[in-house]
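lol forgot to send this yesterday, sorry. struct tokens for the thing we talked abt
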């Protein structure tokens, strides 16, 4: 079955990726390189792109608030502003995706245990199959685990996680992410 796909870039803001106030995230340079490559492929294949920005990162006019310039949105690419970790909560993201006929989301961005995790899980409850880019999300260390451990943990626990029909697959950036493989597992 063919599903219309969109790329969702979550909280890839300068203040998170490079800091301050929240970064730098683990392997920031590698993350940006991966995200640039995926974004380029999406645009070349006419895959629609949505950006989500967290209003708690910094004041809207601050450089820290802006999407990192290496992966900045093009004119016409929607930007959703959110206050919660869940990109769908209190926003019209779901309505916009539905209006565009999207059924499959490729997700990448920051912070893995918060905004990436909650978006992946919520998307499945809203009926989307999700592809999480294995090497396309990052975070910072916490008091218990290193960022690298957190990322590996989430890649493991989110792979195959679902709610009824829709579910999450974790795939490497070198794969054809925009061609969902979910049906081969159903």
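and heres what i got for the seq, position by position
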């Amino acid at each position: 079955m063919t599903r219309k796909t969109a790329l969702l870039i979550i909280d890839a803001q300068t203040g998170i990726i490079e800091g301050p106030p929240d970064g730098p995230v683990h392997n920031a340079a590698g993350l940006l390189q991966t995200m640039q490559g995926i974004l380029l492929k999406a645009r070349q294949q006419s895959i629609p792109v949505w950006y989500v920005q967290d209003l708690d990162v910094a004041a809207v006019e601050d450089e820290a608030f802006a999407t990192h310039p290496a992966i900045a949105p093009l004119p016409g690419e929607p930007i959703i502003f959110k206050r919660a970790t869940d990109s769908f909560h209190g926003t019209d993201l779901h309505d916009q995706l539905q209006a565009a006929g999207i059924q499959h989301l490729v997700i990448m961005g920051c912070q893995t245990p918060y905004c990436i995790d909650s978006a992946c899980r919520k998307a499945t409850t809203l009926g989307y199959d999700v592809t999480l880019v294995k090497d396309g999300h990052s975070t910072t260390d916490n008091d218990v685990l290193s960022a690298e451990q957190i990322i590996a943990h989430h890649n493991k626990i989110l792979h195959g996680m679902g709610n009824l029909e829709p579910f999450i697959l974790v795939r490497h950036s070198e794969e054809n992410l925009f061609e969902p493989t979910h049906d081969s597992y159903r």
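The chain has one domain: 5-179. anyway ping me if u want another try
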